[in-house]
Specification:
By secondary structure, the protein is α+β, with helices and mostly antiparallel strands. The chain has two domains: 3-62, no CATH class; 80-114, no CATH class. Helix content is 39%, strand content 22%. The chain has helices spanning 41-62, 80-93, 97-109; strands at 3-7, 10-17, 22-28, 35-38, 122-125. It has a five-stranded mixed beta sheet, with helices on one face. Strand 3 (22-28) and strand 4 form a beta hairpin. The two termini are 20 Å apart.
Length: 126
């Protein structure tokens, strides 16, 4: 099972390596590689925060804008049939396809229709 940490808008997945007996994680949703590790939960959480802070500071130092995980825009791939049905439903409702997709996502993330997959995943914010 993967757990997720969040800090300053960044998301990281966490894994356990039985071979090395260590917890390790990396920031998700950005192209830059930012990773961290720790031997305990507290050490891992501290390393995560330090990794995010170091990443932001490093980007400032080199004059680069730090990448952000969620910019409010993304591409999805669906079957042409589902695309057609969604476009038709949006037209019937008198809204844009973008609004239809947004409403569907809102429904899922507000737990109105939570998918069965990954129901044991945990999210921790710091």
């Amino acid at each position: 099972m993967k757990d997720v940490l969040t800090y300053k808008g960044y998301i990281a997945t966490v894994h356990y390596s039985a071979e090395d007996d260590i917890l390790h994680g990396k920031l998700e949703g950005i192209d830059d590689l930012v990773s961290f590790d720790g031997r305990s939960i507290d050490e891992l959480k501290k390393a995560f925060k330090e990794a995010v802070d170091d990443y932001i500071e490093y980007c400032k130092k080199i004059g680069k804008e730090p990448e952000r995980v969620c910019k409010g825009s993304f591409n999805i791939r669906i079957t042409p049939e589902l695309h057609r049905k969604a476009a038709q439903q949006a037209a019937v409702l008198g809204i844009s396809l973008n609004q239809l997709v947004q409403k569907a996502i809102e429904k899922v993330v507000t737990h109105e229709e939570m998918p069965k997959t990954r129901k044991h995943a945990k999210v921790a914010s710091y």
